[in-house]
Design a protein that fits this description.
four-stranded antiparallel β-sheet; 13 strands; 151 residues; 36% strand; mainly beta
Length: 151
């Protein structure tokens, strides 16, 4: 997958106090040392679980702020979902870019159990080898308190 990890603010929650801190209902994109294309998406109520785009991956409340959790895509692939700041989510394919072994979340980092490569949970960047390439980003968004697939 080419492109950047899509980072989106929460589209509101179960309360009526407004959007998450720093979120105005619009999206922003993650950046890193490498240039990444921008993407936009609109927030809507949607129907989580109604097919690949919009399939619920995990509840936002189950992803600690400043940390990541393991999940599965609608296609059954292992992925990781992280919440770098309240209401902002990113996701990556959990296959290590060295030899494809699964990475496991450990706080704000992801570690490959096979050869101990280390990745940043919020950018997917390789921090320690043998892997040198970043993890493949996945488009995700927050809808009604759930992290769902799609932009």
């Amino acid at each position: 997958l080419a492109g950047g990890a899509l980072v989106l603010g929460a589209c509101g929650g179960d309360d009526d106090t407004g959007t998450a801190a720093g979120s105005s209902g619009t999206s922003s994109t993650a950046t890193s040392a490498r240039a990444r294309p921008s993407a936009t998406a609109t927030c809507s109520g949607g129907a989580p679980g109604a097919g690949a785009a919009g399939t619920t991956l995990v509840q936002l409340a189950d992803v600690p702020v400043g940390s990541a959790v393991a999940a599965q895509s609608s296609a059954g692939r292992s992925i990781v979902v992280a919440q770098p700041s309240a209401g902002t989510v990113v996701a990556f394919d959990a296959a290590c870019t060295h030899q494809g072994c699964p990475v496991q979340p450990q706080g704000d980092q992801l570690i490959c159990n096979c050869h101990r490569s280390l990745f940043d949970a919020f950018t997917g960047a390789a921090l320690r080898g043998p892997a040198t390439e970043p993890l493949a980003p996945l488009a995700v968004r927050v809808v009604d308190g759930a992290v769902v697939e799609g932009a």
